[in-house]
Amino acid sequence: MTDKTRKIDTILTHAGSDPAANSGVINPPVYRASTVIHPTMQSLDDRQKDRFAPGNMSYGRHGTPTTFAFEDAVAEAEGGARAVALPSGCAAIYAAILAFVRAGDHVLIADHVYGPTRSFANGFLKRFGVATTFYDPMIGAGIAGLMRDNTKILFMESPGSLTFEVQDVPALVAEARQRGVVTIIDNTWAAPLFFHPMALGVDVSVISATKYIVGHSDVMAGVAVCNAATFPGVRHSVAELGYNIGPDECYLALRGLRTAGVRMRQHEKQALALARWLDARPEVARVLHPAMPYHPGHEFWKRDFTGSSGLFGIVLEPASKTAVAAMLDGMKLFGMGYSWGGFESLILPADPGHLRSATRWQDSGPVLRIHAGLEDLDDLVADLDAGFARLRGAG
Ligand SMILES: *Cc1c(COP(=O)(O)O)cnc(C)c1O
Fold it and tell me: Which of 35, 86, 190, 285 has its C-alpha lying 20 to 30 A from 73's C-alpha?
């Protein structure tokens, strides 16, 4: 099924597709299912024995051909053995972590991790007796010093949420491997195009498909892509938690995947142009974008990634909350809202200092997170330019 010589754009176009199984129709039908009828007791037994064998329909909660098409496609795009589709990116993160820990264990999580991942560790994991150490995302091989006998998971996110530092993934993976620690990475920023962490030895890649895979701001979905060793654990964890992604969500996520390549390259181009324009502005102290030569981890981004997506940040020169509100409240094209990866531009005030415990956020100016959408670049620049005039005007 998986042809190792296929390049990423070919995979995104064809992976998981089987028109011959569906009267020649290109896309899989939306299967709505709870009950699956088994014709004989033998077939019922067989299907129950190996519930998660590829393509096995045992019960609606464990997936249908629509789910399997999406899972197969993302697994191939990401370079994993198998994937599990989930109802959100957070569900993928939580199910993947829970697959490998029990009370008394310890996990390592990057300090710049997505906020809800931090909350899950500090809340849910802690309540069930799993301890977390947050580590400096730039620690590299120094991670060895934080590993304990009971460390089960090394969780990475690269680049990090809000601040975008790029981690030295091969160095981190090497230390984890030596000690039998499972490595999980949140690859939402670059997936499915610009970074393939499983090729660098990462065990599980979790992706919020809500972002670029869906690409149209209208569906929540997640995926946990696993290597052969980790798939059974993650698959059972998903089943035990009762997670199930709806068939329409799967269908739309698979449809989004087909065009993710062209969309992401355009988001990349737009973001790079905006980042360079912003870098030259007097109101901007620095741009938080992996492609900036001064950005933390720029060298790892150059070494390990094939591009950059449309999400980045800026640190403004110190400004009052009133001035920032004057800028943001008046934006015409950049909408203020959570999530990202859709076709439209977004801007959001962020407070990374609040979300750290192992490192200190040193910058004093306000941070803005920007998603570069597919609008005309000149219109986006004009919107930001007018925003800066309001910022300056409000003093
Ligand atoms: C949005 C996001 C998630 C969570 O995804 P949902 O689909 O919203 O649950 C996880 N990680 C990162 C980096 C994200 O940006």
Answer: 35
- Ligand 1 neighbour 90 (Cβ under 6 A): yes
Torsion of CA 158, 162, 165, 171, to 10 degrees: -30
Does the domain at residues 260-394 carry the CATH identifier 3.90.1150.10?
A: yes
Tell me if 161 CB under 6 Å of ligand 1.
yes
Residue 294 is among the residues annotated as catalytic for this protein: no
Q: Where are the domains of the chain?
A: 8-258, 260-394
pLDDT for the residue numbered 3:
65
The answer to whether domain 8-258 has CATH 3.40.50.300 is no
At residue 52, the pLDDT reads 93
249 lines ligand 1 (CB under 6 A): no
pLDDT digits (tens, 9 = 90+) for 287-332: 999 999 999 999 999 999 999 999 999 999 999 999 999 999 999 9
345 Cα: distance to centroid of ligand 1 (angstroms): 17
What are the helix (H) ranges across 136-294? 169-178, 231-241, 247-279
Q: How far apart are CA 197 and CA 100, in angstroms?
A: 19
State the pLDDT confidence band at 1, using cuts at 50, 70 and 90. very low
